[in-house]
Amino acid sequence: MSCSSCSTGKDGQPKGCKNNGTCGTDGCNKLTVFDWLSNMSLPNGERPFDFVEVRFKNSRKEFFRNTENLSLSIGDIVATQAQSGHDIGMVTLTGELVRVQMKRKKVSFTEEEAPKVYRKASQKDIDIWQKCRDREEEIKKRAREIAIILKLQMKISDVEFQGDGSKATFYYTADERVDFRQLIKDMAKAFGIRIEMRQIGYRQEAQRLGGIGSCGRELCCSTWLTDFRSVSTSAARYQQLSLNPQKLAGQCGKLKCCLNYELDVYVDALKDFPAQDTKLFTEKGLAFCQKTDIFKEMLWFSYRDDPANWHVLSKDQVNEILEKNKKKEKVASLEMYAMEIAVEEKVVFENVVGQDSLTRFDRPKGDGNNNKNRNKNKNRNRNKNKNRNRNRNQKDA
Description:
The protein is α+β, with helices and mostly antiparallel strands and 397 residues long.
């Protein structure tokens, strides 16, 4: 989904508004909320909800009270109250849906000390805001250099300026506690602004920076994922994935969030499914489970004395044998229950264009007949030319 200024042009190339989601249409941001109550009118006597939702850089959203009764709509740039000074953000939601969002995020809207919307941003406010946004990359690079000089074990991943340019928030990641008091002094002296340091996790860092995952698509955390649930290695075990940290880890260094997407389906399928370490007692010998297919409800067993020969059994057959084993009864053999699986023939190459052979233009190797024929033709042409020259000389004489 993209806005009109970020969409593809007539020549197939992206237009690129280069506003990083701050253009007025706000259709290219992952935090865009569709106001499905916008076409519904309020009942008689009801006043519109006086809170609005305002989005700032990246994933930060806050709620502000519209005390001045400004006529605000989605996409308006407004000046909002901050701890000191004011901040600039974009209105992303108005009306009754803001009440729903505040309830969902457990934000109280009865407090009198709620932050306020001052006014709609003037052109001067927007110019100052844009200049601050343009300085962020340069300041982030300089702040990293200062942290390296101070030998701090931290990584500054992003910088966010306040709308009036008086304060900057530096987001960083670190494995241990970092004493950055000297860092704040040096940065405040170098940049001439108030500094706030805020530690974030590695998943939040990947969300802010973005990138391409191993699946070839943009990272889920930077496109549509808004909450981060804990991911454990048991999710990979349920899905019968190899516990290879290089394949299971994402760009943030943590386990991939997509391991949780299909986990519930696997858990439901495994409720009445035999365990991986199931053993079957038969008169022919003890059988161990070698492989399972959860969705086809099939299991592969082999005898302890013959591990190379596998027998396919269905889930119901295995449960039936286990019930008999609980009663201390042994079945004759696995061959009595084994299933035959039809192997589908795979078409490697299909002649759809009418080609006889893919190597029909290749020259045969080691065949000298072609060279002999070429030499014979050359000699014949030479003899013909000699005879023509002789006849011409005789005529001239």
